Protein backbone atom coordinates (compact mmCIF):
# COMPACT_ATOMS: atom_id res chain seq x y z
CA UNK A 1 0.00 0.00 0.00
CA UNK A 2 1.22 3.45 -0.78
CA UNK A 3 2.06 6.02 1.87
CA UNK A 4 1.39 8.59 -0.83
CA UNK A 5 -2.32 8.18 -0.23
CA UNK A 6 -2.56 9.02 3.45
CA UNK A 7 -3.94 12.51 3.13
CA UNK A 8 -2.05 13.80 6.19
CA UNK A 9 1.25 12.35 4.97
CA UNK A 10 3.80 14.89 3.72
CA UNK A 11 3.99 13.12 0.36
CA UNK A 12 0.25 13.04 -0.34
CA UNK A 13 -0.55 13.12 -4.03
CA UNK A 14 -2.16 16.54 -4.54
CA UNK A 15 -4.75 15.27 -7.03
CA UNK A 16 -6.18 12.89 -4.40
CA UNK A 17 -6.06 15.13 -1.34
CA UNK A 18 -9.11 17.31 -2.15
CA UNK A 19 -11.27 14.20 -2.59
CA UNK A 20 -10.13 12.79 0.76
CA UNK A 21 -10.58 16.19 2.41
CA UNK A 22 -14.16 16.39 1.18
CA UNK A 23 -14.95 12.85 2.38
CA UNK A 24 -13.43 13.54 5.79
CA UNK A 25 -15.40 16.77 6.12
CA UNK A 26 -18.64 14.94 5.34
CA UNK A 27 -17.79 12.20 7.84
CA UNK A 28 -16.93 14.75 10.52
CA UNK A 29 -20.10 16.73 9.89
CA UNK A 30 -22.64 13.93 9.36
CA UNK A 31 -20.91 10.85 10.89
CA UNK A 32 -21.43 8.89 7.65
CA UNK A 33 -20.56 9.21 3.99
CA UNK A 34 -21.82 7.31 0.94
CA UNK A 35 -19.35 6.83 -1.93
CA UNK A 36 -21.02 5.77 -5.19
CA UNK A 37 -19.14 3.11 -7.17
CA UNK A 38 -17.78 5.58 -9.72
CA UNK A 39 -16.17 7.68 -6.99
CA UNK A 40 -14.91 4.64 -5.06
CA UNK A 41 -13.36 3.18 -8.20
CA UNK A 42 -11.57 6.45 -8.90
CA UNK A 43 -10.19 6.56 -5.35
CA UNK A 44 -9.16 2.90 -5.26
CA UNK A 45 -7.43 3.08 -8.63
CA UNK A 46 -4.96 5.62 -7.23
CA UNK A 47 -3.35 2.71 -5.37
CA UNK A 48 -0.80 0.52 -7.18
CA UNK A 49 -2.44 -2.33 -9.09
CA UNK A 50 -5.83 -1.73 -7.49
CA UNK A 51 -8.68 -3.85 -8.85
CA UNK A 52 -6.27 -5.89 -11.00
CA UNK A 53 -7.54 -9.03 -9.25
CA UNK A 54 -11.18 -7.90 -9.12
CA UNK A 55 -12.53 -11.04 -10.85
CA UNK A 56 -10.77 -13.35 -8.36
CA UNK A 57 -11.73 -11.05 -5.47
CA UNK A 58 -15.41 -11.12 -6.43
CA UNK A 59 -15.32 -14.88 -7.09
CA UNK A 60 -13.83 -15.55 -3.63
CA UNK A 61 -17.30 -14.93 -2.14
CA UNK A 62 -18.30 -18.25 -3.73
CA UNK A 63 -15.91 -19.98 -1.29
CA UNK A 64 -17.08 -18.59 2.05
CA UNK A 65 -17.85 -20.89 4.97
CA UNK A 66 -21.13 -21.28 6.85
CA UNK A 67 -21.44 -19.01 9.91
CA UNK A 68 -21.89 -21.57 12.71
CA UNK A 69 -22.44 -18.99 15.43
CA UNK A 70 -25.95 -17.89 14.54
CA UNK A 71 -27.97 -17.97 17.77
CA UNK A 72 -31.19 -17.80 15.74
CA UNK A 73 -30.25 -21.08 14.04
CA UNK A 74 -30.14 -19.34 10.67
CA UNK A 75 -28.14 -20.80 7.79
CA UNK A 76 -28.42 -17.74 5.55
CA UNK A 77 -24.98 -16.26 6.35
CA UNK A 78 -21.51 -17.27 5.18
CA UNK A 79 -18.31 -15.47 6.07
CA UNK A 80 -14.52 -15.36 6.36
CA UNK A 81 -12.50 -13.10 8.65
CA UNK A 82 -9.05 -11.55 9.04
CA UNK A 83 -7.33 -9.45 11.70
CA UNK A 84 -4.90 -6.68 10.80
CA UNK A 85 -3.30 -3.61 12.35
CA UNK A 86 -1.93 -0.26 11.24
CA UNK A 87 0.30 2.31 12.88
CA UNK A 88 -0.66 6.01 13.07
CA UNK A 89 -0.39 7.65 9.63
CA UNK A 90 -0.04 4.11 8.33
CA UNK A 91 1.64 3.32 5.06
CA UNK A 92 -0.13 -0.03 5.09
CA UNK A 93 -2.22 -2.39 7.18
CA UNK A 94 -0.37 -5.55 8.12
CA UNK A 95 -1.95 -8.93 8.69
CA UNK A 96 -1.87 -10.24 12.26
CA UNK A 97 -2.10 -13.82 13.52
CA UNK A 98 -5.56 -15.22 12.91
CA UNK A 99 -7.76 -14.95 15.99
CA UNK A 100 -11.42 -15.20 16.96
CA UNK A 101 -13.84 -12.34 16.40
CA UNK A 102 -15.41 -11.07 19.62
CA UNK A 103 -18.24 -8.64 20.37
CA UNK A 104 -19.87 -8.13 23.75
CA UNK A 105 -23.61 -8.69 24.15
CA UNK A 106 -23.88 -4.94 24.66
CA UNK A 107 -23.18 -4.51 20.94
CA UNK A 108 -24.45 -7.83 19.62
CA UNK A 109 -27.24 -9.20 21.83
CA UNK A 110 -27.87 -12.09 19.40
CA UNK A 111 -24.42 -13.55 18.74
CA UNK A 112 -22.13 -11.65 21.12
CA UNK A 113 -20.50 -12.71 24.36
CA UNK A 114 -18.48 -15.62 22.93
CA UNK A 115 -15.29 -15.80 20.83
CA UNK A 116 -16.38 -16.69 17.31
CA UNK A 117 -13.81 -18.71 15.38
CA UNK A 118 -14.31 -18.03 11.67
CA UNK A 119 -12.16 -19.43 8.88
CA UNK A 120 -9.53 -16.96 7.63
CA UNK A 121 -9.75 -14.94 4.45
CA UNK A 122 -7.59 -16.67 1.86
CA UNK A 123 -4.07 -15.23 1.68
CA UNK A 124 -4.21 -14.50 -2.03
CA UNK A 125 -7.36 -12.43 -1.47
CA UNK A 126 -6.17 -10.72 1.72
CA UNK A 127 -2.86 -9.74 0.14
CA UNK A 128 -4.32 -9.12 -3.32
CA UNK A 129 -4.53 -5.73 -4.98
CA UNK A 130 -8.24 -5.07 -4.40
CA UNK A 131 -8.27 -5.87 -0.67
CA UNK A 132 -5.04 -3.94 -0.15
CA UNK A 133 -6.47 -0.92 -1.95
CA UNK A 134 -9.63 -1.03 0.19
CA UNK A 135 -7.51 -1.24 3.35
CA UNK A 136 -5.30 1.62 2.13
CA UNK A 137 -8.32 3.79 1.43
CA UNK A 138 -9.65 3.13 4.93
CA UNK A 139 -6.25 3.96 6.45
CA UNK A 140 -6.09 7.18 4.42
CA UNK A 141 -9.58 8.41 5.34
CA UNK A 142 -9.80 7.30 8.97
CA UNK A 143 -6.12 8.15 9.50
CA UNK A 144 -6.83 11.72 8.43
CA UNK A 145 -9.72 11.93 10.92
CA UNK A 146 -7.59 10.42 13.69
CA UNK A 147 -3.95 10.85 12.64
CA UNK A 148 -2.28 9.72 15.87
CA UNK A 149 -4.27 6.51 16.32
CA UNK A 150 -2.87 2.98 15.97
CA UNK A 151 -5.60 0.77 14.53
CA UNK A 152 -6.92 -2.71 15.22
CA UNK A 153 -8.55 -3.67 11.91
CA UNK A 154 -10.85 -6.55 11.11
CA UNK A 155 -11.99 -7.54 7.62
CA UNK A 156 -15.09 -9.67 7.06
CA UNK A 157 -16.32 -11.23 3.85
CA UNK A 158 -20.10 -11.70 4.21
CA UNK A 159 -22.59 -13.49 2.00
CA UNK A 160 -26.27 -13.32 2.92
CA UNK A 161 -28.36 -15.89 1.05
CA UNK A 162 -32.08 -16.01 0.34
CA UNK A 163 -33.65 -19.16 -1.05
CA UNK A 164 -36.90 -21.14 -1.00
CA UNK A 165 -38.79 -17.88 -0.41
CA UNK A 166 -37.05 -17.50 2.96
CA UNK A 167 -35.51 -14.07 3.71
CA UNK A 168 -31.86 -13.50 4.52
CA UNK A 169 -30.95 -11.16 7.38
CA UNK A 170 -27.82 -9.02 6.89
CA UNK A 171 -28.11 -7.69 10.47
CA UNK A 172 -30.03 -10.33 12.45
CA UNK A 173 -29.11 -8.56 15.70
CA UNK A 174 -31.18 -5.55 14.59
CA UNK A 175 -30.10 -1.91 14.53
CA UNK A 176 -26.79 -1.77 16.38
CA UNK A 177 -23.24 -0.48 16.75
CA UNK A 178 -20.27 -2.79 16.25
CA UNK A 179 -18.28 -1.39 19.18
CA UNK A 180 -15.51 0.00 16.96
CA UNK A 181 -14.68 3.52 15.77
CA UNK A 182 -15.14 3.46 12.00
CA UNK A 183 -16.72 1.09 9.49
CA UNK A 184 -16.25 0.67 5.75
CA UNK A 185 -18.99 -1.35 4.02
CA UNK A 186 -18.32 -2.18 0.38
CA UNK A 187 -20.77 -3.85 -1.98
CA UNK A 188 -19.12 -6.65 -3.94
CA UNK A 189 -22.12 -8.16 -5.70
CA UNK A 190 -25.92 -8.40 -5.48
CA UNK A 191 -27.67 -11.20 -7.30
CA UNK A 192 -31.44 -11.69 -7.67
CA UNK A 193 -32.36 -9.57 -4.64
CA UNK A 194 -35.12 -7.33 -3.39
CA UNK A 195 -34.41 -4.87 -0.55
CA UNK A 196 -31.28 -4.90 1.64
CA UNK A 197 -31.45 -1.18 2.44
CA UNK A 198 -28.84 0.20 4.82
CA UNK A 199 -30.51 2.29 7.55
CA UNK A 200 -28.58 4.70 9.78
CA UNK A 201 -29.75 6.21 13.08
CA UNK A 202 -28.27 8.55 15.67
CA UNK A 203 -27.68 7.37 19.24
CA UNK A 204 -31.26 8.37 20.13
CA UNK A 205 -32.43 6.01 17.34
CA UNK A 206 -33.72 8.84 15.20
CA UNK A 207 -33.34 8.09 11.45
CA UNK A 208 -30.39 9.71 9.68
CA UNK A 209 -30.38 8.06 6.25
CA UNK A 210 -31.55 5.08 4.25
CA UNK A 211 -29.89 3.87 1.03
CA UNK A 212 -29.21 0.63 -0.79
CA UNK A 213 -25.72 -0.43 -1.80
CA UNK A 214 -26.47 -1.84 -5.24
CA UNK A 215 -23.47 -1.54 -7.56
CA UNK A 216 -20.14 -3.29 -7.01
CA UNK A 217 -17.82 -0.82 -5.20
CA UNK A 218 -20.63 1.25 -3.65
CA UNK A 219 -19.13 2.11 -0.24
CA UNK A 220 -20.65 3.42 3.00
CA UNK A 221 -18.34 4.94 5.65
CA UNK A 222 -19.74 5.20 9.17
CA UNK A 223 -18.58 6.64 12.49
CA UNK A 224 -19.59 3.67 14.66
CA UNK A 225 -19.20 5.66 17.88
CA UNK A 226 -22.02 8.00 16.87
CA UNK A 227 -24.19 6.06 14.40
CA UNK A 228 -26.32 2.91 14.68
CA UNK A 229 -26.76 0.84 11.54
CA UNK A 230 -28.92 -1.97 10.25
CA UNK A 231 -29.79 -3.57 6.91
CA UNK A 232 -33.30 -4.66 5.97
CA UNK A 233 -33.88 -8.36 5.11
CA UNK A 234 -33.30 -9.47 1.54
CA UNK A 235 -35.67 -11.61 -0.54
CA UNK A 236 -35.50 -13.27 -3.94
CA UNK A 237 -36.45 -11.14 -6.92
CA UNK A 238 -37.13 -14.28 -8.96
CA UNK A 239 -38.42 -16.94 -6.50
CA UNK A 240 -37.13 -19.74 -8.77
CA UNK A 241 -33.49 -18.65 -8.26
CA UNK A 242 -31.36 -18.14 -5.15
CA UNK A 243 -30.29 -14.61 -4.18
CA UNK A 244 -26.99 -13.45 -2.67
CA UNK A 245 -25.73 -10.24 -1.05
CA UNK A 246 -21.91 -10.14 -1.01
CA UNK A 247 -20.29 -7.41 1.11
CA UNK A 248 -16.84 -6.59 2.45
CA UNK A 249 -16.92 -5.02 5.92
CA UNK A 250 -13.73 -3.47 7.36
CA UNK A 251 -13.75 -2.13 10.92
CA UNK A 252 -11.21 0.21 12.51
CA UNK A 253 -10.87 0.36 16.30
CA UNK A 254 -8.30 2.26 18.33
CA UNK A 255 -5.68 -0.17 19.52
Structure description:
- Strand 3 (77-86) and strand 4 form a beta hairpin.
- The strands form three sheets. Strands 1, 2, 3, 4, 5, 6, 10 and 13 form an eight-stranded antiparallel β-sheet that branches.
- It contains five helices and 13 strands.
- The chain has 255 residues and is α+β, with helices and mostly antiparallel strands.
- It starts with 16 loop residues before the first helix and ends with a strand.
- The protein is globular, with a radius of gyration of 17 Å.
- It has helices spanning 17-30, 37-44, 54-59, 123-126, 129-145, and strands at 32-35, 65-66, 77-86, 94-95, 151-162, 182-191, 193-195, 198-201, 207-211, 219-223, 228-231, 234-236, 243-254.
- This is 2OG-Fe dioxygenase family protein.
- InterPro entries: 2OG-Fe_dioxygenase.
What are the defining features of this structure?
255 residues, alpha+beta, 8-stranded antiparallel beta sheet, 3-stranded antiparallel beta sheet, 5 helices, 13 strands, 30% strand, disordered N terminus
Global mean pLDDT: 90
Shape: globular
Q: Which structural class is indicated by helix and strand composition?
A: alpha+beta
Low-confidence runs (pLDDT<50, min 5 residues)?
Answer: 1-14
Brief summary:
This protein has 255 residues and is α+β, with helices and mostly antiparallel strands. Helix content is 19%, strand content 30%. InterPro entries: 2OG-Fe_dioxygenase.
